[in-house]
Amino acid sequence: MTRPASAGGAASYTGVPGVGRKGIPAWGKIAAAGLCALAVMLLSAAVGSSSVGFSASYIVRSVRLPRVILAFITGGALAVSGAVFQSVLKNQLASPYILGISSGASLGAALVMISGFALAGSFTLPLAGFVFGLATVFIVIALAAKLDRQFSNNTIILFGMVFSLFVNALLTTLLALFREETRNLIIWQLGSFSLRGWNYVRIMLPFLAAGLLGVLRHTREMDILSFGEEEAQVLGVDAPRIRKELFFFSALLTGSAVALSGAIGFVDLMAPHVSRRITGSKHRHVIPMSFLVGGSLMCAADLAARIIISPSELPVGAVTAIIGAPFFAWVYFRGSSRRR
Questions:
Q1: Structural domains in the chain?
Q2: Can you spell out the DSSP letters for 65-85?
Q3: Which residues lie closer than 8 Å to 190 by C-beta, 6 or more apart?
Q4: How far apart are CA 136 and CA 225, in angstroms?
Q5: Which of 70, 136, 176, 181 has CA atoms 20 to 30 A from the CA of 63?
């Protein structure tokens, strides 16, 4: 069986379904990752810019705990979305940013913040992120399908990157036009879980549940798509339909996460790679492991953001970028060396 070709010169996706790693069963590793995630969350709730520990129960319960839970589910949502994109596009460097979901969600959230529009109450912000993120995906898909009848992954990635740049230019224009909102928008763009209470958690949970359940329903099809679209059609999988559905659920996860917490990058790139190295490449294992790893990474990054320059805070996006940029380079050059 041949390995799928890489897209745009990037490292090729090697997630062909297999039996996983020898030794501990994959579900045992997922259970262990769940315990590690719980430990990270407890540590993140106990430690902060001020040393209150668990003795100050009100601060832990009302300030730190909702922040930690929101960070965890946001990181998990982004990681699952990244795993979907890497699988569907068969590219190890793929992420929601490539098809412009994050950029579209950022634009939608910015428009809501500037206009004060709140038709759906507390749900307006994540809904705007989802709608604009989804609209960006379908615009990219429509353009790619119109100009490339083969609807190749390379074309999708190329149009996604170009359209993402266009949306980012619109967002920059908004920042220039509405200077009184510029500071808040810039802080939000860099990513933060500061002052995020239980209300944010309650808003995020329905989007997370719908997106996660939708992706988990298609883990078998994702395994089959790893072999290529021709093989998928032989096995009775409608590849274009499945791909669109997976993009829909990814937009739901990424759009709501970005709208509530800002455009935090690299977690969606790193977590799926780590997960595949632990569990193997079957997506019924990769998806839950990616959620746990992504959530743990985000909690750890948020903890670092709180304590590095305490009592001030760093943007969480800055911490994930410091870790993620070298990781990105490692994945790329590792894939390049394998092709030689």
A1: 47-339 (1.10.3470.10)
A2: HHHHHHHHHHHHHHHHHHHHH
A3: 262, 263, 315, 316, 317, 318
A4: 23
A5: 181
Rama region for 22: left / alpha / beta (φ>0; ψ in -120 to 50; rest): beta
Q: Which amino acid, residue 62?
A: S
pTM recorded for the entire structure: 0.85
Structure tokens at 146: 């119109």
172 Cβ contact partners less than 8 Å away, ≥ 6 residues apart: none
C-alpha to C-alpha distance for 65 and 298, rounded to whole angstroms: 14
Q: What is the DSSP letter of 64?
A: I
Residue 334 parent element (H or E): helix 316-339
- Residue 17: DSSP 8-state: -
The DSSP call for residue 62 is I
pLDDT tens sequence for the chain (340 residues): 344 444 444 444 444 444 444 578 999 999 999 999 999 999 998 886 665 555 577 778 888 899 999 999 999 999 999 999 988 888 777 888 877 888 898 898 888 888 877 776 777 888 888 889 889 988 888 888 787 766 677 788 888 888 889 998 998 898 888 877 777 777 777 888 887 889 999 999 999 999 999 999 999 999 988 877 777 788 888 888 888 899 899 989 998 998 888 889 889 989 999 999 999 989 999 999 999 999 999 999 999 998 888 778 888 988 998 988 888 788 777 766 665 5
- What does the alpha-carbon distance between residue 328 and residue 334 come to, in Å, rounded to a whole number? 10
CA dihedral sign of residues 58, 62, 67, 68: positive
Structure tokens at 189: 């763009």
Retrieve residue 255's tokens: 């759009």
State the Cα torsion 82-295-110-310 to the nearest 10°. Answer: -130
